[in-house]
């Protein structure tokens, strides 16, 4: 026994040595990620554009653009690699997953290397160094003067960020982790938290924008954090190329210039409405579009599932039951992530809008199926008997008699489903689909006004859902009236 | 000539026996009134003839074929030849009157739309409802709905008409118009099997009486014999209640 163990070990070691000898030779030329970039002629960079002046949305010549010095860095890298830059937006906590699964080629989002993160992906040399500060309200600035004050305070920070770690390290009374910096700042303005941990560049931006903020005197312990470009583990050649580009063409004078440009863009004054209404318009269109796609395909698939569930063929029935129960038992947010990353894993490269729409309709179909099933079962058995007695087949009976009546009965319920989908569509903002909730946080990030955009989008959501409910109500009444007129 | 021959027909739901062992024959041109107390299996027998409710055992021979053994697709064809009228009309509420009458012609028989419309109009005229062609079922009275249902079944040109208590769900003033239509049909020589509680209709129109009680059936080839000299106690007590 010991003999063959030794043999296997010897074989494994030989293999490893062989690989070790072969690998560097080929790796010196290219790696999977780099060859993909070169082949497609595109560098897909993931970022979370709510982080001025690193990356944020602004209106340039009436057009929405993502700008910031991180974007300038990404641009420079793409230029030096000789490919086109494509920016892919998503929430900060989705970035690492995206680079790992290959959704994006790299992440440039002011991300700092930590031991945990370095297990998941490779980090370039830091190209920008920023220290963390605690931003607070001016009226409270004197309450946070030393580390002891911080220990007694409630601090907010962006989820999965290095600032979140910093807040935890000072052992604050409570650390509130939020998806977006905007949300953290909103909590601050509402006095829900005592301070927000942010890089001082970000704090400067907020201070420039509003006089209600101040930087607390209390300093955070630990080192400063450097922003790195993040790549997949296997992108070894790309990593050295990026390091080279950063060193020669980014760090120093170029970055300083980009930073000043970004701050200038950020402080470019225009009226709030003029500057940001296109975001709300675009977001509303996308929200309604998603809902229409979601409900339309949801109904198509829902009818199929309902028929399968009512079928006498056992495997079809089981499949439908399993699908409906599984989808209804898992949060939509998780399903969105599964579709977004899952399509990548099985080798399909779908846009975030497509992924969002697919997740929405796969989810909606389960609910629609149950609505349709109840509608079908509510059609009197006599209808089926009458049809069958005339010689209609089972399928024909379903098509000409049962389904038309079922659908008329369930129209109100389907309308409610549409309203639900409009609201639940906000979930797909996490994968960067530019629907209303996403655009709202974009505006929050770009305008440094955390609260007003929320109210505006709440109003838009309400108008949409209430309007549709009323419209459906009228439609229903009309249908009842036409029924009554005949009597 | 026999249209339908029923042999040893048995039907049970679980432990409950509905039809014990029915043997009977329907001849061409017969107008049979199927009488008997409620819950004795009259409707079950009727629905067992076109397999809307498959019998547990026994045979139903229709045009030489035992249709209890027929496949679903064979049955779809066979049912076209057996018109059925239900107690609760069962018109399709999402279609106008004329659509109700012609849809099976178009979708089942594949008749061209114009021809189907003509046929439908002919049968609506026959039941006296040509003027209601474009109305929807909800706007019709019960009697009118039932006459449309009769036209719908007739349009398929069936070899036999099965009526399952066609007047039981109607207001008393509506019963007459439906019975009148059925009487005309009988006079034209249509073969009919009618489950009914209308004793007057049975006596005047029917050529034969089938009397069912407790899952058994007695046949009378002369209606007068049944009404004047019922030979069983059950028939006597039934008539005593009904007349």
TrEMBL record, chain B:
Methyltransferase among keywords: no
Lineage: superkingdom: Bacteria
GO CC list: plasma membrane
Limits of the ABC transporter domain: 4-239
Keyword annotations from UniProtKB, A to Z: Amino-acid transport, ATP-binding, Cell membrane, Membrane, Nucleotide-binding, Transport
Membrane topology: Peripheral membrane protein
Single GO MF annotation: ABC-type amino acid transporter activity
Transit peptide found in the keyword field: no
Subcellular location as annotated: Cell membrane
Coiled coil, from the record: none
Major subcellular site: membrane
Entry-linked Gene3D superfamilies: P-loop containing nucleotide triphosphate hydrolases (3.40.50.300)
UniProt xrefs under PANTHER family: AMINO ACID IMPORT ATP-BINDING PROTEIN, GLUTAMATE_ASPARTATE IMPORT ATP-BINDING PROTEIN GLTL
Family listed: Belongs to the ABC transporter superfamily.
UniProt protein name: Glutamine ABC transporter ATP-binding protein
Organism from which the protein derives: Weissella cibaria
Gene responsible for this protein: glnQ
